[in-house]
Amino acid sequence: MGVPAIAPPVKTHQQTLPAPPYDRAVFTGYRPPRPAARCFDLWSMLPKHNRRADTTGDLRRLIACFQEVVDWLLADVDRFVELFDLERAPAPFLDLILHDLGNPFAFDLTELEKRRLASVLVEMFQQKGTAVGIRNAVRFFLGIELAGMLPFTASTLVLGESALGVDWELGPSDRFARYAFSVVVAHPLSETQRRQIRTLVTYLKPAHTYFVDLI
Predict the structure, then answer these.
(1) Tens digit of pLDDT for each residue in 117-154?
(2) Does the pTM exceed 0.70?
(3) Beta strands in the chain (DSSP E)
(4) Residue 90 contacts by C-beta under 8 Å, 6 or more apart in sequence?
């Protein structure tokens, strides 16, 4: 059998604590602002017998630690009014506001455009399914005035003259023709503008209608 090794003795160093008056330090702190009439003191909320039993002051010091956390939480709650104010809300909260409102448009917007959109998005929802809503949305996002919305028209058949596949094509159903329409713009558009207008019209048109073409 081997002889177990004996661990060498561990050297200990006696810790020397600073002597008064150098055993205390003063730091500059910060207390969040709070309304003058607010009284949310955790220590005063404790039962009196618990406060009387705290002869060492340990409980009061522990509650003071909790009080600092509570003060910061209340300060965050006080800021909710600013966070949901469309004019004063910090920029990172604008996307959250739009998300909360159910923003369906994935356009790249500036900070000012996001604030404007948040202020009119509910009205856009209310105008959904109307020609006015489509016009207002295109004007809001692109600054373009639509020239009109035309009902769908197909080439007509002249009996005895029209040739199938030459000057006349078999049209869609009566239901489609009745509810189909095209959007007319007065000037040429870029591919990005065409894509954005199609997205807006497709979302805002009445559900039973058919968006055929952008002219």
Answers:
(1) 999 999 999 999 999 999 999 999 998 999 888 887 66
(2) no
(3) 146-151, 180-185, 210-214
(4) 83
